[in-house]
Amino acid sequence: MQRIAVPPREDWPQRAAELGFAFHTIDGQPYWTETAAYALSAAEVDALEDAAQALEGLCLDFVGETIERDDYDGFGLSDAAITLVEDSWNRQDKNLYGRFDLAFGADGAPKLLEYNADTPTALFEASVVQWEWLEHHFPERDQFNSIHETLVEAWKHFGLYGHRLHFACVRNHAEDEGTVDYLRDTAMQAGLDTERLYMDEIGWNGRRFVDNSNQPITTLFKLYPWEWLMAEDFASHIGPSSVRMIEPAWKMLLSNKALLPRLWARHAGHPNLLPASFAPGDIEGAMVRKPLLGREGAGVTLYDAAGRETLATPASAESSSDFVYQQAVTLPCFDGHYPMLGAWIVASRACGLGIREDDTAITRNSSRFVPHFFQ
User: Would you say residue 317 has pLDDT above 80?
Assistant: First the structure.
């Protein structure tokens, strides 16, 4: 993999606006990067695709085995959450999408850093924006990117024709709103009837959740983490309401970083997994401490092989105070840029890649999106 300089298009902000990419600049800083691109080999792309597909299989097997054994140790789930997890899995509620964050290990195999299985963002830019960039700059090259068509096809199998699908996220968050609007567009392209609202507009009529037109919400795509939902006053209504959620409640077992040590315990030595544990003493060499629940790199700490802290990010208000420990992978550094590889899963199929880079070895909410191609 190489990072190459690319001349930015003078009209790229206009092009971004025409695509509906409203959050290309965040807090006055560029989020979308046109001054560089990552060039991968076809073999590297194949390795990433194969790793993501293998990891998705391990994760789905893990959910089934955990529910069958009633073994939720380490996840910190309430009884109410466990009931929702089990009910959604037993109903075979469908999942839509997720993103595996990966890095190439010293052995050349992609390693799982974490699974953004519930509320992943950076989707629209991975699917649409970098494809438009590729067609302009490198039309003769290829890109690991069939995200859009895979999303449209996936919606056709949710059994929602004749029903309304609601999409919701929090207010005043450009990236979340952009992600939800894009996903809604793919559902509409699949021929579904959709409605858009904010989380604070969802009401309860005593039997069902309703939208701001008092229409029942039977299926809800919510870009809102399950752990936040479970902390809401209306959480007790989720089961009785019979609402179907996307992502389904069983994703609580995959969006929690307790997944990392639990997967390692089952599949120690798997080429796409890193040693991970609930106890730091189990990890040899440099390691990373991560909160069980947290977003955008908040609350992450790196330690060297001697156990000395080398880098840390502040915890957010939502970060949990329980941690997992994972063997560290040295991210490549290209002139001070550290890329993290996000392999996209849609309907449990690996179908694309988005690369975000940071000025440090921890990918954060200020990290930039950089397009890629392969040859």
Answer: no
pLDDT in tens, 42-87: 999 999 999 999 999 999 999 999 999 999 999 999 999 999 999 9
Exposed, middle or buried: residue 342 (CB in 10 Å: 0-12, 13-18, 19+)?
buried
Residue 258's CB is within 10 A of a number of other CB atoms, namely 24
pLDDT of residue 320: 74
Please tell me whether residue 19 adopts helix, strand or coil conformation: helix
Residue owning tokens 């009910």: 87
Would you state the torsion angle of the CA atoms of residues 195, 196, 197, 202, taken in this order, to the nearest 10 degrees?
A: 30
Q: What's the token pair of residue 329?
A: 């992978």
Question: Residue 251 carries which DSSP code?
Answer: G
Give the integer Cα–Cα distance in Å for 349 and 240. Answer: 31
Identity of the amino acid at 40? L
Q: Give kind and range of the element (H or E) at residue 356.
A: strand 349-358
Place of tokens 């208000």: 317
State pTM to two decimals: 0.96
Question: Which residues make Cβ contacts (< 8 Å) with residue 184, sequence separation at least 6?
Answer: 167, 194, 196, 221
Q: How far apart are CA 252 and CA 226, in angstroms?
A: 7
**pLDDT attached to residue 184:** 98
CB 323 within 8 A of CB 359: no
pLDDT in tens, 161-197: 999 999 999 999 989 999 999 999 999 999 999 999 9
Q: Measure CA of the first residue to CA of the last residue in the chain; give whole Å.
A: 11
CA-to-CA distance for 358 and 365, rounded, in angstroms? 9
Query: Torsions phi, psi of 117, nearest 5?
Result: -100, -10
Residue corresponding to tokens 């009209």: 11
All residues at 6 or more sequence positions from 282 whose CB lies less than 8 Å from its CB, including other chains:
275, 325
Distance CA 358, CA 366 (A): 8
Query: By percentage, how much of the chain surpasses pLDDT 70?
Result: 100
